[in-house]
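Pilot study result, target chain (318 residues):
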Amino acid sequence: MRTRQLGKTGLEVSEVGWGGAGITLYGGVTDDQVFATLDRARELGVIYWDTAPLYGRGRSETLIGRYLSSMRGGPAPIVATKAGYLPDGFDYGYDATMHCLEGSLQRLQLDHLPLVQIHDIERSSLAFIMSRKGAFAALSRMKAEGVVGHIGVSGGPPDLLLEAIETREFETVITHSRYTLLDTSAGEKLIPRAAELGIGVINGGPFATGILATGPVAGAHLQYREAPPEVLERVATMQEFFAANGLELREAALGLSLINAAISVTIPGARSPQEVEDNVAVTEIDLAELKKILLAWRDEEQQLREEQRRADEDGLGS
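Predicted structure:
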């Protein structure tokens, strides 16, 4: 497994990490299966693990904590969690953040959190989050006291995340489902600017919460909801294209991140040892070949859009 520097944090992370949200989504993952998944992740060098109090209302952190407490030998993972969510919902206040950190420390069975990121900042206002009554002030205090190693930010809207990193206060940024085969909006300004500032970029949701891993099957998920017919059709087209070029859809989806040197780590959510193996296998594909195929798909998709535009214009003129 190749590693990359996480911005200026000094942390060296695996280029493919493990996302701890997946084990709490869509059901059917037992505790033992989670432990087996984490075993396989460490064996294969997947040493960046992402979690949050939100995931399963603490279950993800709790299972990681149980695993860490019984871990013997081998590489120690870098466990990154988030602040902003309590059992009663999202709260970005100072006291709530302190309480959130206390809960994470207990569930993870740690006395130091290497990286804490403010979760889904679009659920509040950046002005409040950055105020002396907000989450950032609490995290800064805990960093000064040595409880927190580094402070990051996460969310969806790229423009809001761009505004956040321009404060020059954050060391990492998670963009979620905005740098995928279906949506590359984070790649327009956010990711390049983060790289310029030396901020570690973490790409979450490379499979768009499901469909880019499962393909256009019945009930495939997009952004945690059932994908609409037009997305199923679009994914079917890209799946056919990649298959003709010797790639599985999930390989192309993860490869999009791997060929971008500005992205430090990508965090697909593996729910089984086999899914960990499948994700890691993508890192063994030649990056130059991945880039060649992905650029060809970009050209193909542009051509398809142009053909559709002309067809729509002809339809209006008839």
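One observation from the pilot: The first helix runs from residue 31 to 43. A full batch analysis is planned for the follow-on phase.
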